[in-house]
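Continuing the batch. This is chain 6 of the set; chains 1 through 5 are on the previous pages. Same settings as before, nothing changed between runs. Recording input and output for traceability.
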Amino acid sequence: MEHRGISRAVISRLPRYYRYLGDLLEEGVERISSNDLSKKMHVTASQIRQDLNNFGGFGQQGYGYNVKYLYTEIGKILGLDKNHNFIIIGAGNLGQALANYASFERSGFILKSLFDVNPRMEGVAIRGIPIRMMDELEEFLQQNEIEIAALTLPKSKAIEVADMLVANGIKAIWNFAHTDLNLPKDVIVESVHLSDSLMTLSYNISRRNEGNKK
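Output for chain 6:
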């Protein structure tokens, strides 16, 4: 299936579709119309149809969507029908919180190890997954097929570590460090700036409060 030219906005909605369809499956729902799905997701039925038509449609007029089939197909589009080995660089509070999130495995993301510079962390296990020291990282990457690295370390170290990861074959980085990474075009970077999200929330709260005063 050809996916070229799909907008980031459409791609950003796919995980939401997948999550809502998963909820419907758990509720025992077998079929759903775009109108009913739109009410759950707060996205117009027209938008849902347009989004899914980018990948073939999946529905029939007057029949709706087969929930299990659509859930499975969106999972394939998202690459969730395959396992993705990943590591976490930085075993502080955020790194450990990510490591403790067991739902990753259910989506095919397999955490292989955490790495840190703090010698007191060496040998500590999170859900049975060991924390290793940074001087072991290069050898570990050479001996294991790691696809994704999550960076949960200070921004002062993020660029240096990211360059080293790329030099050792990492092609996808989940960046929680508060800095932008300038990496080769063939390296996929998904940045999650937590403070940016909080500032956006603060802006929306301020706008709401201003509206209430009028």
